[in-house]
Amino acid sequence: MKIRVQSIHFTADKRLLEFIQKKADKLDVFFDQIISGEVYLKLENVEDEANKITEIKLLLPGNQLFAKYQCKTFEEATDLAIESLIKQIGKHKQKKNAVDKTVLSSLVEEE
Predict the structure, then answer these.
(1) pTM
(2) Residue 51 burial by CB count (10 A; 0-12/13-18/19+): exposed, middle or buried?
(3) Is the Cβ–Cβ distance between 18 and 5 less than 8 Å?
(4) What is 35-55 written as a DSSP string?
(5) In CATH, what number is assigned to the domain containing residue 106?
């Protein structure tokens, strides 16, 4: 899957970028029709240790999925966002299958 990573107000190191790409590649196992993905890494200017934000947006045919997490590390936030997207993909597939079955049954009734 083609994924674009943007780090806002800092430069992400190569190891972090490879980690994100590896995690994002796992999404293809759950849904092979993902068109592209965008990852935004942000540092929030707060006193709290959990100041790292990962936002992931996936573009699917006819839909878009989004997850955002704030944690102590980008790796942890990325893991949580990927887990959330896996759940969202599951729900998307269920809805898509339900629609497909409805359309198919209506076509069969017409014949």
Answers:
(1) 0.85
(2) middle
(3) no
(4) -EEEEEEEE--SSSS--EEEE
(5) 3.30.160.100
